[in-house]
Recover the amino acids of this structure.
């Protein structure tokens, strides 16, 4: 690994901000079966088989199983009380536990998994219990709504029952901070808001995790959106601050903010560098300051922010355009064919503009001047070399690719004026580019762009068509990936490994609370 | 379950005698492969592949494995230090750990196991580790010499290494109590003695366990033999006392001492009743008193002992012969075809005689008289109805079966005089009965009978032919089951589930120290 730059006082400060975790004991709500159904989402349907009160009476022998529904998505620690039945337990009990956010995780066999992310993310355990009756609390945290328990081995003499099973949930989100929506908000938006809040809540631990099932870590792309929702809901602003100091305290070799970082065994930053993600440090700091007016943090982290802009600008070629290449140098969206050049250019301009505003607030004249000039240069270059007047779209890369991502980000970067932006967005729906949107992350930016351009009705109908469809498909937290026309979509080779509670998908709550409150929607 | 009789003060006293466990950190000694070899014991051979110093350098990726030899048999808790290699661990690590007392447990697939004891006794774990580098201590106790570690999943980015792996062994046996053998003992007997001591040591925990892999509990048949070895070695006499009070404190419905008992979650006696095992409470108490002269314990437990004799006598028919039946009413040996009647009759007489000696010591005149008369009655009946003068053997059951077990126990019961007993034993070797011996437990009684009858040389040659052969076949603790002519013998349908460190097999140490010390053997 490359040498990295650690600013230990920043990391130490971040560690003083580790939040309290709120705990709650949650019990399963019913006994279910998971059955194949080609008409159901991803081919699996849940069928309620019994009241949860029947659980304690159910006697299981070798080969038997029971599947529990915990009602909604949970993140926490599982406890099982287990009784021996018919006889004492004259041999250990061997159980298999399978945890699923979604029915597919219970219905399909993890042993058949062939995706390219590690199978170790799939949540199952084989445990052996030496003493019965007894109570077992598993040491790992799980993320699930469904739990299947299979009795692999008892002995010829005894069977088992489960008088009590519960999950001790954990989150650093304080729900008492979340204000109820005012009257006049439609039930549809209330549901969407609630699910967004639950999504964020289940991702809030000692950092803002991207997904509590997978990857369970802090990505700056997710952080930026989580922070926006947080300011409208949980007000865990010290958690945003902690995350900013962690990123600021552990830079990559050449001073870039890393794309993601880990907390354990001790905080460290991953090697992954992404052009857009490093720049988002500036945008996240800007949003944080707007929400908190925390001048001390702004002062301390400003040099790192401005350095990200300088690093971003180094990638501009002699024309003033972001140098393109074939690697995963910039994220924007999960899309194999998406060319990143125009989007990267737009993210650069977007973040330069947030940097400019911060420089102004700080009275940093020199920085203000250089950023102003960079914005002008990058904007002019975008209009000169990427804008295709005939087609009315921005193009990207050597084959002049036209994508949703490029247009959306150019709107957010406000490269053109509001009217032109609005027309560009209208054009997207009239003549949709072949390179479509893939993730809720990019959908977020579409909605943001529509709202920025005064397309509030369109924004709402797009929210309905996307997150609303997820809800119809059974989401009780919003998903990492969703394509209404390809419901098993996964960039990882298997929908089993997708995260079904994912930070970057929680922003309907932000939109609703920021743009749709106090109006009759 | 039937109601049982609990004498809580006895159980409470037993609980005050829970011994201290001695711990030791034991490291593996070499890296090995387990390979198929039809000439090797049970078809599996170990091959040393590398020095243990190489372990820390070995880098394992998904699908890789490493097998460790801990040098000798261990009972304890496993700790693994694990490093990520090449990159940080961006996904959990999933490992399979397979523990084996014997090479067969590593070589064969537990998933193919079809024995009738629970598969849960086979020691394997699948564990998921969320944080690397890290140190993991597994919560369960394992019994093993060999450990295979299979890397089931890492991620595409990282591999793992194991800088340190060790077992923290536990035993309540204090090795400093064990006196070295005097000079003049052959090396062969020294080795046999050492292995017997190690066998007992590995079975000594908070009770005398029958086998630390399986069943991990207190059986009175094993206890009696363990206590005999203990008096010659560890002198953990309070542990014998604890076990006697546990049995005496928790009786079966009709006042019988149970065959086995459990310590957790709270002490309780199993439903299993065995005719011989209940009677052995008397013999074990007798041996304990002989070793300790602990009159208080004798006084307290005497009523339970004498009750076992009364219960045993109730099974005599009008002829004075133990009523036979087809159930597992009496143990004697693991042998499907063995008829138990004559052996049970002999065990009854053997235990009556120990009871008589105790009654005499206690001045219990009434008991003395009834026991004397019972001995006479049972002995006369045995000679009248079971002794076959023509064949020179005791017969058993409706088909007048002749077995080793019946003769051995009749000798130990001293139904005939010493000279006749000696001739009976000689006859066994000249004209061996078809119903042979199966377990070390019965072999113990053969050796004891030979020594009682002055056949010291024969006893020694039989010890060599049996436990000596186990040693040649690789035992570093003595086994539950061993048949030199059928090395995969198991009464449970699979030799994988046999216990390879088993209490009832540890008595060569007792014989050597009691009968062969201070002589040139």
């Amino acid at each position: 690994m490359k040498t990295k730059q650690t600013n230990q006082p920043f990391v130490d400060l971040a560690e003083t901000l580790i939040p309290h975790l709120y705990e709650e004991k949650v019990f399963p709500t019913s006994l279910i079966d998971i059955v194949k159904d080609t008409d159901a989402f991803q081919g699996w349907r849940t069928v309620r088989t019994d009241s949860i009160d029947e659980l304690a009476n159910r006697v299981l022998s070798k080969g038997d199983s029971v599947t529990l529904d915990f009602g909604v998505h949970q993140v926490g620690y599982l406890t099982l009380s287990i009784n021996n039945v018919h006889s004492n337990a004259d041999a250990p009990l061997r159980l298999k536990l399978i945890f699923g956010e979604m029915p597919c995780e219970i219905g399909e066999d993890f042993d058949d998994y062939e995706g390219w992310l590690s199978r170790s993310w799939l949540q199952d355990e084989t445990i052996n219990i030496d003493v019965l009756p007894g109570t077992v609390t598993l040491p790992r945290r799980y993320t699930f709504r469904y739990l299947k328990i299979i009795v692999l081995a008892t002995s010829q003499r005894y069977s088992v029952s489960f008088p009590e099973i519960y999950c001790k949930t954990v989150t650093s989100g304080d729900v008492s901070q979340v204000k109820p929506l005012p009257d006049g908000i439609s039930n549809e938006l209330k549901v969407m808001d609630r699910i967004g809040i639950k999504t964020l809540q289940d991702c809030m631990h000692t950092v803002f995790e991207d997904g509590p099932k997978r990857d369970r870590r802090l990505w700056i792309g997710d952080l930026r959106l989580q922070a926006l929702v947080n300011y409208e809901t949980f007000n865990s602003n010290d958690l945003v601050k902690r995350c900013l100091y962690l990123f600021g305290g552990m830079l990559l070799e050449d001073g870039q903010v890393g794309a993601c970082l880990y907390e354990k065994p001790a905080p460290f930053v991953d090697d992954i560098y992404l052009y857009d993600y490093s720049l988002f440090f500036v945008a996240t700091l800007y949003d944080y300051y707007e929400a908190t007016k925390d001048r001390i943090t702004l002062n301390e982290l400003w040099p790192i922010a401005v350095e990200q802009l300088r690093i971003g600008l180094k990638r501009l070629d002699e024309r003033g355009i972001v140098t393109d290449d074939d690697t995963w140098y910039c994220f924007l969206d999960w899309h194999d064919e998406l060319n990143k050049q125009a989007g990267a250019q737009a993210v650069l301009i977007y973040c330069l503009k947030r940097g400019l505003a911060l420089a102004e607030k700080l009275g940093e004249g020199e920085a203000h001047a250089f950023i102003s000039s960079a914005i002008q240069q990058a904007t002019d270059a975008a209009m000169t070399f990427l804008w295709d007047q005939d087609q009315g779209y921005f193009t990207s890369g050597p084959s002049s690719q036209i994508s949703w991502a490029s247009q959306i980000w150019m709107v957010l970067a406000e490269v053109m004026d509001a009217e032109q932006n609005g027309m560009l967005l209208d054009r997207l729906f009239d003549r949709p580019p072949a390179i479509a949107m893939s993730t809720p992350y990019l959908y977020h930016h579409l909605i943001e762009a529509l709202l920025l351009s005064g397309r509030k009705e369109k924004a709402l109908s797009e929210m309905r068509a996307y997150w609303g469809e997820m809800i119809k498909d059974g989401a009780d937290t919003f998903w990492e990936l969703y394509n209404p026309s390809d419901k098993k979509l996964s960039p990882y080779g298997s929908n089993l490994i997708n995260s079904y509670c994912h930070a970057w998908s929680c922003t309907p709550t932000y939109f609703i609370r920021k743009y749709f409150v106090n109006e009759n929607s």
Summary: Chain B touches chain A at residues 1, 87-88, 90-94, 116-121, 125-126, 128, 130-134, 140, 152-156, 214-216, 262, 264-265, 268, 270-271 (CB under 8 Å). Residues 315 and 323 of chain B are 6 Å apart (CA to CA).
